[in-house]
Amino acid sequence: MSSKRLPETTAHVRITHQSWHQGRIEGEVRASEYEWQFQWRFKQGELSVEPSLGRALIKEPLSRFLERCDYQLEPGGDYYFTIRAEL
C-alpha cells in the first residue's frame, strides 16, 4: 500500500476591509505564485474573486475558510489555511 501524501499549498489571507453593517469582508489571498482580491458579501453568501486567472482553484477553499472563520477575522489580520492541491 502506497503512502503517497496529497499535495498541499498554504494560502495566505489578509483582510483589508470589514463592515458588519454592510455584511462585507474584503481582502487579498496569495497561494503559490497566484494573488487575488476578494469580496465576500456574507449576508448574501456571495464571494467574488479577481482576477479570473486561477480563480477556480481558490474560490471554494477560500469560501470554506471564510465561512468557518468569519467572526474571527479582523482588518489588517493575516491568516493561513491549507489547500489540498498543488498550485
Describe this structure in words.
The protein is α+β, with helices and mostly antiparallel strands. The chain has one domain. The chain is built from one helix and five strands, in the order E-E-E-E-H-E. The protein has a five-stranded antiparallel β-sheet with strand order 4-3-2-1-5, covered by helices on one side. Strand 2 and strand 3 form a beta hairpin. The two termini are 26 Å apart. The model has no long low-confidence stretch (mean pLDDT 92).
Key features of this structure:
single chain, 87 residues, alpha+beta, 5-stranded antiparallel sheet, 1 helix, 5 strands
Give the helix tally: 1
Main beta sheet: strand number and arrangement? 5 strands, antiparallel
User: Cα-atom Rg, whole angstroms?
Assistant: 14 Å
Structural class: alpha+beta
Strand order of the largest sheet: 4-3-2-1-5
Molecular shape: globular
- Separation of termini? 26 Å
The overall number of domains is: 1
Q: What is the helix fraction of residues, given as a range? A: 10-25%
- Poorly predicted ranges (pLDDT <50, ≥5 residues)? none
Quick structural summary:
The protein is α+β, with helices and mostly antiparallel strands.
Write the layout of secondary structure elements.
Layout: E1 9-19, E2 24-31, E3 34-41, E4 46-50, H1 55-69, E5 78-83
